[in-house]
Amino acid sequence: MCKLRLVLPTALVAILLIGSPPPTAAPADEDARDVAASSQAIDKLLAGLAKDQKVLLSPPAGDLEWLRRVTLDLIARLPTEVEIRAFEGATGPDKRTRRVDDLVASDEFSEYWGNLWARELLERHFKTSNWISRERWIGYVISVFRANKPYQQMVREMIEAEGDARDIGATNFVLSCDGDAAEIAGTLTRQLLGISMQCAQCHDHPYEKWKQKDFWGVAAYFARAKTETYMVKDATYYVLKESKDGELEIPRREGLRVQPNFPVAGVPNKLSDKGNRRQTLAAILLLPENARLAEVAVNRVWRHFFGAGFVEPQDGFGEKPMTKFAAPLRRLAEDFARHRFDLKRLIRVVVLSETYARSSVTDRPGEDPTAFERARVRRLNDFQRFAALLQATGYRKAVLGWNGGDEAKAGETIAWLRQRFVDIPDERSRTTMYFNGEMVRHAVEGGPVIPGMIEEGLEYAPALDRLFLATLSRHPTMAETERLSRRLDEADDLAAAYKGVFWGLLNSLEFQTNH
Amino acid sequence: MDRIVGCTGCGSTEHALSRRTFLGMSLGTTLSWLLHSPLRAGEDVTVAVGRKTRKKSCILLWMDGGPSHLETFDPKPGTSDGGPYKTIPSTVPGLGFVEHLPRLAQQAKHLTLVRSMTTRELEHGRARYYFHSGYKREGSTDHPGFGSLVARNRRDLDCGHLPKNVVVGYEVHGRGFLGPETAPFVVPDPSNPPPELFWPEGMSSDGVRNRVQVYQDLDREFLEFRDPQMQEEQDKVRAETLDMMASRELRAFRLEEEPAPLRDQYGRNGFGQGCLLARRLVETGVPFVEVVLGGWDGHRGLHDGYSGLLRTLDAGFSTLLEDLKGRGLLQDVLVVWAGEFGRTPEINKDNGRDHYGEAFCSVIAGAGLSGGRTYGKTCPAGANVIADPVTVPDLLATACTVLGIDPHEEYLSPDGRPIKIVDKGKVIRKLLA
Description:
The complex is a heterodimer of chains A (515) and B (433). Chain A is mainly alpha-helical. Chain A has 26 helices and seven strands. Chain A has helices at residues 11-17, 29-52, 63-75, 81-89, 95-105, 107-122, 125-128, 134-146, 151-160, 172-175, 181-193, 212-219, 277-285, 291-306, 326-338, 343-351, 382-392, 395-402, 407-421, 427-436, 438-446, 449-456, 460-472, 478-490, 494-506, 509-512, and strands at residues 163-164, 225-232, 235-242, 248-249, 257-258, 378-379, 513-514. Chain A has a three-stranded antiparallel β-sheet, with no helix packed on it. The longest helix of chain A has 24 residues, at 29-52. The radius of gyration of chain A is 25 Å and the shape is globular. Chain B has two domains: 19-25 and 41-193 and 254-432, 3-Layer(aba) Sandwich (Alkaline Phosphatase, subunit A); 197-253. Chain B is built from 13 helices and 17 strands. Chain B has helices spanning 19-23, 32-35, 45-50, 102-106, 124-133, 146-153, 205-224, 228-246, 260-266, 270-284, 302-326, 392-402, 429-432, and strands spanning 57-64, 87-89, 96-98, 111-118, 165-168, 185-187, 288-294, 333-339, 342-343, 355-356, 360-366, 373-375, 377-378, 385-387, 390-391, 410-412, 418-420. The chains are: A mainly alpha (515), B alpha/beta (433). Chains A and B meet through helix 11, helix 20, helix 21, helix 24 and helix 25 of A and helix 7 and helix 8 of B.
């Protein structure tokens, strides 16, 4: 969905802002105003809620604080020094809008969001399924973001798809449950409807209204999904099809057949038999009466940027979500639906809001925010952590150097390294990586940064500035410069002292979190 | 206490060093196991546990993929689908072992072969989950694995700041909803422990302290008006990690300190060296180590793959028993050999066996339990349990009891529901004897 962009005099700045091809299109002023109006509506509702709760709104975050946060949230890495200086130097009331638009249009954005959602949507099946083609699934979700496919269309494809898992990426959603109808029902209701009803798999839900037949009613839509397999060498591959017949019986209650049944109140349960069952389900999911679809998507996106959704947990919508954020949730969901479920637009609305731009500083430290009155301090996720270390330690550059400038080979090494970082379950291992992992060691012990600074004969202040920009994406405060300069001054071994500072920065919580 | 302990297998002192010199510890340090008195002869383990003796450690040898019981510990030679392996005698009269496990056959007196395991979980993921947590996998709850349960139970144990739950190979089951300190510490390659564990040469504790000051100052300012609790929590993890990296016990990860002949005896492969690492870790007091050996999922050409696997298993498992015994450790360590299910008694059209749960086997050893025996029986074809069935929770409940954990103790899951350590499952008294 490209719109023409007015090339501003700061086009050169715009080109420098991201390492990817220069922006070719721009939202028309009207579109930008429309997005701003949506953001403001949400801001107003949330400010009202904060006031009701007698909670102070935190001040806006500074430019560089905002830039770091938005870069991490949109493309899972830190801003480069070039990007930081360009942003600092840029002028105009819409400089943040331009930055966001460029980030959202980038390849890095679709790769990150594609990878994230590919994992979220499949839940643990992403790791455990024996039937799926992970690569193809990730590729599919990336393509959704790259083309900015409307969310509804993606949902329809995920439900209806037929074909070879290695060709038709969308088939992998259904295939991921390895043929277990109960798992499909559970995953679908959680991920697309925000409902946790898997207790009802074996018995009527203990406290919500779901009965066992409600749960199996959802599974029944998949009763005719069939798979065929074929072998290539020793590996088995899966093809998803829809057959003309087949009924679902509740396990261990033989003979009790279930008819397809949609569990969300107010949504017509049966449509006239449009094609096959999965198509029917997709059609029901997309009905305008099913506001839940948009609400859950909005909640997911909101949660990405704030660390908490309007509804928590994500599958806590139940029959009707008990949340004090019902108004902004509904408003944003309607906005999303009205704009054809445009995901990139939704993301822009959230990211360009005042709410998102608030500082994480608070007059009530130690208490969780209750009304999005401030930004949270959040741990970096696996993607962000790896990218941050790779960049701040200069390791990426080093790998490139060791491979003689060969980007492709360097890319392989980096991909292999990334494997070690993804899904580290153990706090201790994560901590040892920060304390003493190869990237940190390179930066601090073996790399060129410290020797370079000393050789250049840099004064303490500019040297510290360089280190802070590389790690914390900001300039040091006067107090920090003073304190650390004193430390450098008092040290016998200047190089060792610089190493200590570099190491300390990489191990600071400011570096290791998104704030 | 500077006793030199020789290997009880051959009497050599080459591969059993003085405890004191091995660990480089002085008498003053508390290695409580040195002070532990073994079980009084004939004493019931549960009574001993009641007496509050030192709790035992556990080594789980995890056979990933579902090892066939007919080709491991419940052979049926001479039956139509019994397979091509011959049976050899063991040191226990009447107890035959598969020909590819000759060294284990020598160690038969230490083993209890539980031949009557039975399960209904036949999909790898679900079955692994079930065996490690004692619970069936359902959509939302993430149950903790056995190692994490042990780590939780031993939260007050001092084992030199080493992680209390270690897995050699890869993580099969994680900590679920238990705290991060119970997460399995993964050692992918025991011969090359994670390099991050060891500070570079020349890094002194002063040097570390100096650097730590830098981030502590930064953190204080950063979090003062944001989230001071985060600093507290992180400092706890970081302090534990720093302690671990500074501890002498960390040497347990350095297998190069072991004599080459012993390392050869264990087998120069991930599993063999993993067993050796497990011995060193339990020696240091780590309460749970899992060593993974995969490749048992023999749907086709099973016997081609298995001969190598069995040899690997034979070397590692038998040497582990010998070594533990030689160091006087065996009575303090429960060794469990298991996989998630067994394999079909019929050989399929691809010369393999498929997943099977009606009957399969596991093995326990050590911890002062009797050995040289079988528990439970299968029919002549190995298809059904005909005596003393043992479910997966039964085995776990029994293992818990040996380790001094009450399997029926309740604790709270994150959604507030009280859950037992092991869901259902009865303790099998006969196994505790």
